[in-house]
Amino acid sequence: MNRRLYPTALLLALLIGVAACEEGETPIQNSFDRGEMLENMAQNLIIPAYTDLQTRVGALGSSAESFTQNPTMNALQALQAAWQAAYSSWQYANAYNFGPAGEEGVRRSLLEEVGTFPVSGEKIEAAIAGSPNFNDFNRDARGFLAVEYLIFGTNESEADLVAAFASQNRKDFLLGAVADIDRRIAEVLSAWNGGYASEFTQNRGTDVGSSTSMLYNEFVKSFESAKNFKLGLPLGRRPGQTQAEPQLVEAWYSGTSTTMLKEHLQAIERIWQGRGGQGQNGPGFREYLESVEGGPALIEATEAQMTAVRAALEALPDSPPLSEQIQLSPESADRLHTELQKQTRFYKSDMSSLLGISITFSSGDGD
Fold it and tell me: What pTM value is reported for the model?
């Protein structure tokens, strides 16, 4: 063909293609129903996760009220158990930081507002002594981990913890912190139940800002937060660190870091599989991958690595606390971090490429 005629021929072919589509011919496209996946995620994973979380935070509030009215060791133990139940439930909701739980104005994501760790004991004590403000920029002085600091303490005995709550300021801060968590979660759940679920399921594209893109990015981001911050940070693997810092584990005061990490990674698997907490099974990212070229091979490789992660996770004992393991015998934690690092490419790079969904965040470590 004459090179001078090539652009004209190409333009003509494109116009013919457009005309054909306009006359009713459907362009070739992936047949996967993203709307069905989004509906499953909203109704069987996201809303139930927030609903359970609100229930457990409500129970935490009731326990806090009982404890502040009559501070005893029995009441403290009940409060600690309520906190553990609520924070365990949080692990299944902390991957959905978009829409109602996303950033808006000076408000950061729900994860940052109620799940920031490590917290600052100095800031918390200063707020107790002064005038608490649960809407300022001191996100490391509120949320679940600030409550943990108050009711578990560092090296204090239970008797000392109870005695500290003779202070009305301390009681007020505890009640205010729990009420702030409850308010924020209630607002998110109300929005999902009040119309956002429909908006979410109808936004079926894959472009930046689409529901699938937001869900996928928060899925990957949540996985990376488990790897980078719940393990990498206390192991001393983050940029700029020169040694392990065991005190930077999540849930350091309660010593439940390992339990919370296991819950978090189980929540990630549920999103991958599209499986709800009550066993409801619908389409997730796994089914989405089955519908694209190269997807089945990626599923096989991803799930093989997931098996390796599970084995490393099972080898990480619940006791002693993760901080002590990192300090005294970090081999199991190191192995788990290595296996999670291997998993990153499958969730992040390969899935992004095959599904055509852009990564819109930076983890800051080159993964």
Answer: 0.90
